């Protein structure tokens, strides 16, 4: 087992009825902060955010709420270096994101949960696919607007001369409209992104693993054809395009949630199994939902 025992330590503190704040320590000793939408079902879906986002991403919150209405518990968390989690933000970190996801999954396995699915938006989509390529313990994966070729899309954020600048200075500081530095792209993190090849990884996903790629037809950040490229590489794959939706599904939240939950629900258990620790809380949780 690649994780130290610290990976599975967690602290729980109540936010409100039906939601719990949870801290999970990854294998690097960093605390990952998350919110559990508790329905008292043993079935659990883990939700992963995208680049420079967090567990508060509108799409993740919407999907978590939709899953809860179906009686499926959901957990959304911040990757290390993002949101409330510890660690430094890095431009690349694709494999570390998968490591963070591994720590989260191992924690819930020890909590006797059944991981029904892992869902990721944008960069989080890459994380869930890399996870599925490396491990074979989650059999439903949803990739929302993930990028197939990680060598693409860099110029839009860093400029066409990004390689010359990073070779010269060793880093690029990305600034906002007011000139304030919002994050730094190091040479190491750039190499991480450029050497992460999603295509070969997708070929390693077990053919018994069901994978859904959801993409907006009006995605302005990741081209729609990336969804079709995933379709050529992933053995057991379905593509769902949402007409008119942008990268963040700004005006298509309900449709996105329906598509994702419907795909997950097909593989749902026939019987409702209750988490033992929820006895006494089950009625109030489900009444709220």
TrEMBL record:
GO molecular function annotation: hydrolase activity
InterPro entries, A to Z: AB_hydrolase_fold, Hydrolase_4
Ranges where the Serine aminopeptidase S33 domain occurs: 43-175
Hydrolase among keywords: yes
UniProt keyword terms in alphabetical order: Hydrolase
Name under which the protein is recorded: Alpha/beta-Hydrolases superfamily protein
Tree of life domain: Eukaryota
SUPFAM superfamilies: alpha/beta-Hydrolases
Organism, scientific name: Thalictrum thalictroides (Rue-anemone)
